[in-house]
Amino acid sequence: MDNTWYKEDAFYQIWCRSFKDGNGDGIGDLYGVLDKLDYIKSLGVDGIWFSPIYPSPNADYGYDISDYKNISPDYGDLDLFKKVLDEAHKRGLKVLMDLVVNHTSDEHEWFKESKKGDDNPYHDYYFWRKGKGKDGKRPPNNWLSTFEGGAWEYDKDLDEYYLHVFAKKQPDLNMDNPKVREEVKSIMRFWLDMGVDGFREDVITFISKKEGLPNGFPLPIATGIENYNKGPHIHEYLKEFRHDVLNHYDCFVVGESPMTGADDALSFTEGQDKELDMMISFDHMQADCFMTDTIATPFNLKKMKAAFTRWQKKLYGRAWNALYLENHDHPRIISRYGSEKFRNESGKMLATMCYMQSGTPFIYQGQEIGMLNNHLDSIDKFKDVVTFNNQRLFKKFGFSDKKYLEIANKTSRENARTPVQWDSSEYGGFSTAEPWFGVNPNYTEINVAQQEKDPDSILNYYRKLLKVRKENPIIIYGDYEEHYHESNEIYCYERNFNGQKALIVCSFADHTVTFRAPKGFDLTKGEVLISNYHDAPAKKDICALRPYEARVYLYK
Ligand code: NOJ
């Protein structure tokens, strides 16, 4: 099946709860999505990725699924989803679903059954183990959950523990059980038969656990991760899904892959027999933190460039990149890598820097209008299990709640989960009722309606940028060579394709800097395909770059 259309496509990610409320209950839903399909199409994207919209008790806002073959009543129902799918397809928009099969909700029927006893046919769908120690009261191993303390939860009726590497309401599925793999395939077929065009696969590299579940190397968080990240059977299981299901449909899959480097990525995405079509890398998202967003460090441009360069160079001609700067798991990118003061300039520059590389762009709701981090005045106003878990952790290390509030405002993924700001009316036009989560008060200035009217808006820049990408095969298929990788202010790379050259120049400085073009590039001869200032003055191979300036030159 030739599914390589995904290379030219761009996707828009919807985190439904905060996208647009269509039925006036303060929660985003599929009525809202239906209403905004024309808007999504107008961006110049080719498809939508839906973060989970299945029934869920929302311990992890949809990433804890209680029924894989249905739609959450918060968002609508299956008929409404089919309508959205149909209307999206009519507009030439593909639809990707989120496939979350490392774990289910503890409210899923399988888990409820599995708790009934060792002899229940669903018991072995999960990892149930006896406790350790004389009285059997110690957990089976020392693993820690990435979300909530220990990775084992005790069930007193069964007198056994179950494994959850995320929240305790997210028990891990035992993928070594062939019946579980059959269930996964059945879920895939259910949605593909309905007409969806592929999946984003949640923490897919975690699905195979090392036999015997041995103790892990002690770490402050996620102890044990070396025993399930890219575990022993990962390639085998992904190949099985590919051969038994995916190969029979015109679809593609993008796998979320924490702690995976570019070399590792090739083992999943290269060659005829590739298991995933692309992977969501985390490397470039760690230029202002250590391992996780919460452990913030000063933004380091060289670190970010090195990460992009590794993935661009390693995968070129062998595999394919997914390009993104935001999703529901990270704070807003302008607040991180750009400048809130130079929001307009830096928002456009960051988009240029990322999406002029080789790969499939993913744009997260609100990113296209340059939404910023939120600033809440109390931890009680946050909603997410991760925020509260981190609060406990930080407390352990002596941080006051006041200090932690500052940290959460800067680093929490909830910054990306405030409702989309559609206009300057009450609640930012997101809903007629009070939204489930507060709208960022800057909605009166930053909103879609205002940016629709402004030819210089970030929104209209995204449209132009995606058009430039579509119209210039060099941007999609060209190779990649970085220049000045030692610079702490400028990110410059060139692309080459069929005798053409492109030069992408981006300043990360909040002041004017001098840029000297790499050898062989005359800045007065190239065609400026796009830039975030009105003009692009230059003398031969030298120019002054204004704060957060970005230029894309094409040489035919
Ligand atoms: C990754 C998802 O993107 C995130 O939102 C979720 O909390 C975890 N996986 C667990 O499913």
Radius of gyration: 24 Å
**How would a crystallographer describe the biggest sheet?**
8 strands, parallel
By DSSP, the count of extended strands is: 20
Figure out the total of helices: 15
- How are the strands of the biggest sheet laid out side by side? 9-8-7-3-2-1-13-12
Approximate helicity band: 25-40%
Attached small molecules: 1-deoxynojirimycin
| Low-confidence sequence ranges | none
User: Which structural class do the helices and strands define?
Assistant: alpha/beta
Mean pLDDT: 97
Instruction: Tell the overall outline.
Output: globular
Distance separating the two termini: 34 Å
Task: Quickly describe the structure.
This protein is 27% helix and 16% strand. With 556 residues, the protein is of the alpha/beta class. The chain binds 1-deoxynojirimycin.
Structure description:
The protein is 27% helix and 16% strand. The model has no long low-confidence stretch (mean pLDDT 97). The strands form five sheets. The chain has an eight-stranded parallel beta sheet with strand order 9-8-7-3-2-1-13-12, with helices on one face. The protein has 556 residues and is an alpha/beta fold. The two termini are 34 Å apart. Helix 10 (343-355) runs parallel beside helix 14 (458-471) and helix 11 packs across helix 12. The longest helix has 17 residues, at 178-194. The chain binds 1-deoxynojirimycin. Residues 60, 63, 100, 166, 202-203, 256, 328-329 line the site of 1-deoxynojirimycin.
